[in-house]
Design goal:
Structural class: alpha/beta
Number of strands: 20
Largest sheet: 9 strands, mixed
Shape: elongated
CATH architecture of the largest domain: 3-Layer(aba) Sandwich
CATH topology of the largest domain: Rossmann fold
Bound molecules: thymidine-5'-diphosphate, magnesium ion
CATH class of the largest domain: Alpha Beta
Helix content: 25-40%
Strand order of the largest sheet: 5-4-6-7-3-8-9-10-11
């Protein structure tokens, strides 16, 4: 049960913040390490507990077919073995369909209950009868509250249903996972209506044609929004990938012009990714600029810096930028890698495949420091990288703190021009 609220029993008394008891603040592990990591952790009786918070409501959003039902079926199985009954409600699949998937996934927990239902009143009855500790609703867009107007999936319906689940979660102290499909505009379906209602929004991303999936918290009242979880979709469902850098670099060819590896930092975990650029003469009056996995505006800013501050002519070129493996990189620390990949492809020169590149690029062509350079370089070293092009400010603090890595040759740069010259030697 959730802790009692102040005011219950007629007394209203504020509590000293430092006296607030965290022992009530439990978490239930989903048994899927990467999902638990994204849900967050709290210290509990001397250990760090991670997983879902009882009484909370979590929205799992993503494109159709990305693996939401798969992930929650697997989680339902694990959680039920720890906390007891889990109710999986589906408005999309029949009980037979869910069973056939779970059979394939090797799931046989006696405490997972399924129900094919879309009427939320019926659902309440089922919850009363089953007394689950965790409820999975697949998907919120198929649910219908009779007292609300509109068709299932409409803003009014989605909001009304989410409010009902919120009340269920808070009064019964059970955790609720809502599945939400992302609609065509890319907003979390039932548009963004749900974001305010729920405690956490987890976004499941990835290229459906590839095996990797990234789970990202875009909102989390009980944890950090920086953590990501990495999964691989295979014949036995989703498997956590504990060593994503190695996986993401596994198909790299090495000595290709336009390929540069950078170490990004997502939450507490460094991730090595390959940035690819293809610069080719354009036959269009307005040459193409396209990015996959990178922020479009930031990338075009880096291209403008290459033109204006370094003097690389890109005006008549089509430019395609890509992060290999279907990963999305949102932090500016990837800028310098984008710059060097583009410059390399333009000049047909390769960057040494054992070099990792870090740095944010500013409008005047300066290379700015990235946070936690040391951790990023450690991950690169672990995967066999022997040299690094990094912002001078980072290089200086590594030296001052004595945290330089043995066997890693550091090239410190303060401008993009310097980075291009030192990398390609002209
Ligand atoms: P699903 O979880 O149904 O996606 P969502 O609920 O987000 O719409 O899974 C979608 C795809 O995953 C489906 O095309 C089949 C594939 N898949 C596997 O590759 N392996 C598996 O073990 C399972 C269960 C699904
Ligand atoms: Mg589904």
């Amino acid at each position: 049960m959730p802790p009692p609220r102040s005011g219950e029993g007629g007394r209203v008394e504020a509590q000293r913040l430092r006296d607030v008891n965290l022992d009530d603040f439990k978490r239930w592990p989903t048994g899927i390490s990467e999902l638990d990591r994204v849900l967050g952790s709290t210290p509990h009786e001397g250990v760090n507990l991670s997983g879902v918070v009882p009484g909370s409501i979590v929205l799992l959003a993503g494109d159709p077919g990305i693996g939401k039902s798969t992930l929650l079926t697997q989680a339902a199985d694990n959680i039920s073995q720890v906390v007891g009954p889990v109710l999986y409600v589906s408005g999309e699949e029949s009980a037979q369909q869910i069973r056939s998937r779970s059979k394939r996934l090797g799931i046989s927990s006696p405490d997972v209950f399924v129900l094919n239902e879309t009427d939320i009143d019926m659902l309440d009855t089922a919850i009363e009868n089953t007394r689950p500790n965790v409820v999975v609703v697949d998907s919120i867009q198929t649910m219908r509250a009779v007292d609300s107007t509109g068709a299932p999936g409409s803003v009014a319906q989605v909001r009304a249903c989410a409010d009902r689940f919120l009340r269920t979660a808070k009064t019964l102290g059970c955790a609720v996972f809502l599945v939400g499909h992302v609609n065509k505009e890319g907003a979390i379906a039932g548009p963004r209506v749900l974001e305010h209602t729920v405690d956490a929004v987890l976004q499941f991303e990835g290229d459906r044609s590839q095996a990797y999936r990234i789970l990202r918290a875009v909102k989390n009242r009980f944890g950090s929004t920086n953590e990501i979880g990495v999964f691989e979709m295979g014949g036995m469902g989703l498997t956590p990938v504990e060593n994503p850098s190695a996986l993401l670099l596994s198909e790299r060819h090495g000595n290709e012009p336009g390929s540069v590896v950078t170490a990004t930092l997502e939450g507490t975990r460094p991730l090595l990714v390959e940035v690819q650029a293809l610069v080719a003469p354009s036959h269009l009056t307005q040459p193409r600029r396209s990015t996959t996995g990178l922020d479009y505006n930031r990338a075009t800013m880096v291209l403008a810096v290459l033109e204006k501050r370094v003097g690389i002519r890109l005006g008549a070129q089509d430019i395609f930028l890509n992060v290999a493996g279907g990963v999305k990189v949102t932090e500016p620390g990837v800028d310098l890698a984008v710059a060097l990949a583009t410059a390399g492809s333009r000049a047909d020169l390769a960057v040494n495949p054992e070099t990792v590149v870090l740095g944010e690029v500013g409008l005047s062509g300066e290379v700015r420091a990235v946070p936690h350079a040391e951790r990023r370089l450690q991950e690169a070293a672990r995967l066999g990288f022997r040299s690094a092009v990094i912002p001078s400010r980072n290089a200086r603090s590594l030296k001052e703190n004595g945290t330089e890595l043995p066997g890693m040759k550091i090239t410190a740069v303060s401008t993009v021009r310097e980075a291009v010259e030192l990398t390609f030697g002209s």
